[in-house]
Amino acid sequence: MLKTVMTPAPAFRSIAFALLGCIALAGCQSRGPDLVLDAPDGPAKRMVTQGAAKKIIAQNLTSCANTNPKMNLRVAGVGEITATDGTVITVPANTALQRKEGPLSYDLYNECNKVLPANAAAVSTDKVPVIEIDSDGEVVTGFIVADNYYELYVNGKLVSVDNTPYTPFNSAIVKFKVKRPYTMAFLLVDWDEQLGLGVEAMARLNETWYLGDGGLIAKFSDGTVTDSSWKAQTFMVGPLDSPSDVVEKGNVHFYDKLGRTYPHVKRPVCRENCYMVHYAYPKNWQSKTFNDTNWPRAYEYTDEEIGVTTLTAYTRYPEFFEGARWIWSSNLVYDNVVIARKVVR
Ligand SMILES: [Ca+2]
Ligand SMILES: [Ca+2]
Ligand SMILES: [Ca+2]
Fold it and tell me: Which of 24, 189, 293, 322 has its CA 20 to 30 A from that of 315?
């Protein structure tokens, strides 16, 4: 059915799809013209890399004013690696932070900047800059924690770039002015040290080949929370003993055998020869018109699965995250780059 609406010219295609959407949802009134979507994208192009990337940025992407050695400070570098099809891929991701685009996040909690409010009552949101999407919109305030890096777009406009891409773990406040319906899109990165291999050094466990994991939790003043009503797609999977460990069925990527969370994951034995499966980002993934209909839903995770039961940036402010769920794609450990999207109606 979708194939038949993908052939005509783009304008007609959008209208045809909107009509199909009306029939499917039996609720055309709520789908105003600004919600007319592009036809769903087909499966993304798959690319495979092997081994470590070449570092293109070796120093930390962010500066940390606090030099307390007890702080969990790790260097967020950037690498480049050539896939078997010749595509040069930036790892762990090509971020707005390294391109120096967009407003840096406003700290809720940040050890580097020594912003450490004792509790929610000690936090003021008065000075958080309001990013304007719609001049006649309402101001929405949000609280965000990401393991490890996020950039947030609202209707395609970049509104907040995580100022601490790796560690120490930080949290942020964002404000934007927008009219409903609007679309939020997060690019999320589980950062690592062994760029291209998706593994990190875990001093606490005396391990240098630790498979890191991800996670995002956010709550907004208009009632929007992260949960399984969001869509979440993965764009970098690994490290893998074999690229054939990952199988695609349309837009869904399968590798359940590897385990989805700690401590259930199966660890690869490939070390520096590990493979990574990458997928090309769809054009306009940040935008309001990008159609994520065929993307998988986000998976919800517990504090224990994410490993944040003692994470101060989060646990100090339960009021700010009440009712929100930690989300990621289906695999918390192997999926290192994830895009999460939500249409707020
Ligand atoms: Ca961060
Ligand atoms: Ca991580
Ligand atoms: Ca990982």
Answer: 189
